[in-house]
Design a protein that fits this description.
The chain is mainly α. It has one domain. The chain is built from five helices and no strands. The radius of gyration is 19 Å and the shape is elongated.
Length: 76
Amino acid sequence: MRIFLTFVFCAVLTACSNSDRVYTVEELIADEALRTELIGKCRNNPGELGQTPNCQNAEAADFKARLARMRKSLGG
């Protein structure tokens, strides 16, 4: 009986865990489509998603990508 309850408890914990993958800034810089998608979702619902790791990383990656484009356009 204890084994069964332990199994059920573990299954419930697994089902309740947040399985969204957190992307790094480097991954988001490399994947512009993913970065654009995440930024769109985050800006559409900033109250709920604005402080999540993916939204913060997407904003940081967007800033770095824009900075790199500006440097390149200025010849640096």
